Amino acid sequence: MAMTGVLPTTFRKLMVVKKSINFREAVSIVTSPIPTLKHNEILVQNKYVGINASDIIRSAGKYNLSETVPFEVGFEGIGKVVAVGNDVKKYKKNDYILYIQSGAYSEYTVLPENEESDEGLPISSTVREPKPEYIAIAGASGLTAKLALDKCGEMKTGETVLITAAAGGTGHTAVLLAKQKNCHVIGTCSSKEKASFLKALGCDRVVITKEEKLQDVLTSEYPNGVDVVFESIGGEFFTAALSSLAVGGRLIIIGFISGYKSGNIPEMNLQNLPQILLAKSASVRGFYLFHYFKYTREAMKELIHEFEDKIDKIHMDNGKKTGKEFIGLEGIIDGVEYLHSTKSYGKVFVNL
């Protein structure tokens, strides 16, 4: 394999060694030898990694119930190509690359070039600079926002769109995408600080959920209902959104973060679901990014191009405002806990 500089003989990575919702208890830092690349593989030295709410679902082993410990964790990263296999054509040494692949919480990651494959991982693309904003724009968060709204929610220009947890990494990207289509955007958040952030992004109505009930706002201010719901919290937020759908409305479930830490799906009374949907010709649709894999490569390129000159609109959060910046593999553990503290806004990331 061709190399850039002198590679170390070993590297460190986070591994799940005990299945648990408690991320700190679940993971351990493990030292492994630098791998020898196959003919179609590249080695990426990670610069930044993105933190996702679903990291604790992964650490609990709930993505693959048959998976045994130890296993890798982390979904996305950005870094520099430091070695390439002999047959690699798409990437070259010193390229900066954004990628999505399990096992990103590592100092180095091996990726297959995977140029012709339409299934599986990785999803990757070169970027001009190793800016962490690219992770939010076109990593798992950006792809989820774009494909959920476009392919699953069929969002149209000028519609009314409700985005729960709108100040988060995925949520604030969804706000920007909806505003690009001149939609009326309702965003929920938990604090005045986050509300100011969402208004600056262009949210037309911000609901601070510690001060107002979402159901009351939707009932009194949106009598004709909401066309598209981008829902990631679950529980009463799902129930309020469901009862407030417009005729032909589409509710997209991208998660249920209110149940992640407990490991339980919030209980909801859905006895009237058939009547609600039938009466409004409405629908409830689940969205899981990797079921839309055939669209991801093109969507990643589109997002990078689309936001290239709007990168300042993306908000990245590395914990600096708390006085403890997230750095290194140890910082990943702090970052996961910070994201679930509800104190973060924008995309949480770690500088390795």
Summarize the structure.
The chain is of the alpha/beta class. It is 29% helix and 26% strand. The protein has helices at 23-26, 55-59, 133-138, 140-152, 169-180, 192-201, 214-221, 236-243, 273-280, 293-307, 328-339; strands at 2-3, 10-16, 27-33, 41-50, 71-72, 76-84, 96-100, 108-112, 123-127, 160-163, 184-189, 205-208, 226-231, 245-253, 283-286, 316-317, 347-351.
Explain what the structure shows.
This protein has helices at 23-26, 55-59, 133-138, 140-152, 169-180, 192-201, 214-221, 236-243, 273-280, 293-307, 328-339, and strands at 2-3, 10-16, 27-33, 41-50, 71-72, 76-84, 96-100, 108-112, 123-127, 160-163, 184-189, 205-208, 226-231, 245-253, 283-286, 316-317, 347-351. By secondary structure, the protein is an alpha/beta fold. Strand 13, helix 8 and strand 14 form a beta-alpha-beta unit. Helix 4 (140-152) crosses helix 5 (169-180) and helix 4 (140-152) packs across helix 10. The radius of gyration is 20 Å and the shape is globular.
